[in-house]
Amino acid sequence: MVWEDELSERKMRILKTLIDDYIQTAQPVGSRTISKKHELGLSSATIRNEMADLEEMGYITQPHTSAGRVPSDKGYRFYVDHLIQVETLARDEIKKIRSAIELRLNEIDALINRASDIVSTITGYTSFALTPMLTKTVLRTVQVVQVDEKRVLVIIVTGGGVVKNSIVRLNTECTADNMMRLSSFLEEKLSGKIIENIQIPSADFISREIKVDPGIVECVLEGLNVCLKGTEQSDLMLHGTTNLLNHPEFSDLLKVKEVLELLSDKDIIKALISSTMIKSGLQVQIGKENQLGLMQDCSLVTTAYGVGNTDVGAFGILGPTRMSYAKVISAMKYIQKLINRESLRILSEE
Amino acid sequence: MVWEDELSERKMRILKTLIDDYIQTAQPVGSRTISKKHELGLSSATIRNEMADLEEMGYITQPHTSAGRVPSDKGYRFYVDHLIQVETLARDEIKKIRSAIELRLNEIDALINRASDIVSTITGYTSFALTPMLTKTVLRTVQVVQVDEKRVLVIIVTGGGVVKNSIVRLNTECTADNMMRLSSFLEEKLSGKIIENIQIPSADFISREIKVDPGIVECVLEGLNVCLKGTEQSDLMLHGTTNLLNHPEFSDLLKVKEVLELLSDKDIIKALISSTMIKSGLQVQIGKENQLGLMQDCSLVTTAYGVGNTDVGAFGILGPTRMSYAKVISAMKYIQKLINRESLRILSEE
DNA sequence: GTTTAGCACTCGTTTAGATAGAGTGCTAAC
DNA sequence: GTTAGCACTCTATCTAAACGAGTGCTAAAC
Question: Which residue of A has its CA nearest to B180?
Answer without folding.
Answer: A180
